C-alpha cells in the first residue's frame, strides 16, 4: 500500500474518509473547548499527513496552547505534515518520522490531554486493537480524550472497541451513527493513568489490504 497516495482520497468531495476527517476534527475541537485553561499536550499515532490535528487547530482559539507530537513512518507524509504545520503557524506541532507503535515516541508527552488513534484500528488485528486501547490507559491523562476511528465492515468491531475502552475507565462522549461506515468515536478517561513503559511495541501495523485477504 502506498500510504502517501492513499491521502489523495481526501481530495474527493464524496469520499467517506473526508466525512470521517470532518467528524474527527470536530471531536478534537470539542476536546479543546472543554479542556481546562493552560498548556495542552496531544499525541497522534500513525498521523499520516496530520490532517486530523493540524486541520482542527488551524483556526481554533487554543491553537497555541497545544504542544503535540505526530508520529508517522512514511517520510513523504512526514514532510507533508511538517509543511502543513508550518503553513498554519503551529510551532508547537512536532512531526516525527518513525515507528508509531513504539512507546518511546510518546514518553515525553504522556499522559496527554488528547490522544488520536485515527486510521489505525482498521489496519491491525483485533488482538492488537485491544492491546493498543489498553495502552491508552498509559497515554491519556485523567480527564483527557481519546479520539479514534474504525470502519464498520463486517464483522463490525466498533461496539467491541467501545466496550474495551469503557472497561478500562473511559466514558463515551460521542459515537457516529451506525449507518456511517467510517466510524468516529470520542472517549474521556476517568481514572488515574498507569505509567508508560519504555521500549514497548503497542501493535503491529498490518494494513487493511492485507487483513482482508482470504
UniProtKB/TrEMBL annotation:
Q: Provide the alphabetized UniProt keywords.
A: Methyltransferase, Transferase
User: Taking every annotated instance into account, which residue ranges of this chain make up the domain Methyltransferase?
Assistant: 45-144
What GO molecular function terms would the record report?
Answer: methyltransferase activity
The protein's superkingdom reads Bacteria
What's a single GO BP term from this record? Answer: methylation
Record's InterPro entries?
Answer: Methyltransf_25, SAM-dependent_MTases_sf
Xref: SUPFAM superfamilies: S-adenosyl-L-methionine-dependent methyltransferases (SSF53335)
Q: Which Pfam families match?
A: Methyltransf_25
Q: What is this protein called?
A: Methyltransferase domain-containing protein
**Which species is this UniProt entry from?**
Streptomyces cylindrosporus
